[in-house]
Amino acid sequence: MKRFTLWAGIVLVAGLVVTAVVATFWTPHDPVRVETSNALQPPSATHLLGTDPYGIDILSKVMAGAATCLQVGVIAVAIASLVGIPLGITVGMSAQSWWSRLLLRVSDLFYAFPALLLAILLAAAVGASTVTAMVAIGIATIPVFVRMARAGAMQVMTRDYVASARVSGISWPAIGVQHVLPNIAPLLGVQASVSFAMAILAEAALSYLGLGAPVSQPTWGRMVLDAQRHIFTSPGLTVWPALAIGAAVLGFNLLGDGLRDRLDPLLREVS
Asked: Is 51 helix (H, G, I), strand (E, B) or coil?
């Protein structure tokens, strides 16, 4: 069952990545070209999933939305990890110092602000855009990485090889890079996968609220927003982007669970 979870996650995530890469170079139709004469067409050989109220091919929009989704997830998780992991390791290695406690309290303060609220504040300040969504999601996810890296670093600092490294005169930054980071990397990889799923949900929600990508850029959240007026007459308009969001989130969650089961030594011993 654990192996199935991992492989199911790999397949779903690989499908998202392949779709996003293909959509960068090719889609069956132009995902932004409006053709009102083809509005609300049912599925056919020309339009496999039909068309939306603007005559745009749904399959092409779903594929283009995958590219946007992947871009937002990668940048948001990169922002969160590049800032949160060094801070978490620093706080964990100096858990008794006053400044590490201060950093942890600041992290808790940011943890109280969800991505949606940060996006609203940033949109009011600089305007709604894809960059706004990526930055807001990334900042909101930083405290999660800080907590995970801190917990892992505190465990590693109790090991004998770290004590030996300190006695031999190795500097604190070198200990963090050579000993702490490699030992907590699997834990952080699992968290990155789960955070990617949360970033996809947050991006869809922001697009639905009009705080994400512009109207000219296809996103799954925007597709759900545009389709809600036709949910009873053309349910496929809502079903396909919703399925895409669900499959992407499920894939990264399954991948994270599978990696945790595979990399966590305690779970391996139990199995």
From this structure: strand
Supply 156's token pair. Answer: 């590693």
Burial label, 164 (beta-carbon count in 10 A; 0-12, 13-18, 19+): exposed
| Length of the chain measured in residues | 271
Full residue range of the structural domain in which residue 169 is found: 2-270
**215-266 pLDDT, tens per residue?**
788 899 889 988 888 888 888 889 999 999 999 999 999 998 888 877 765 4
In the three-class reduction of DSSP (H, G, I as helix; E, B as strand; rest coil), residue 57 is classed as strand
The whole-number average pLDDT for the span 122-132 is 77
Contact 198, 133 (CB under 8 A): no
The answer to whether residues 194 and 256 touch, using CB atoms and an 8 Å cutoff, is yes
Measured CA angle at 256 (ends 91, 2), to 5 deg: 130
Q: Which CATH number do you get for residue 196?
A: 1.10.3720.10
- Cα 37 from chain centre: 37
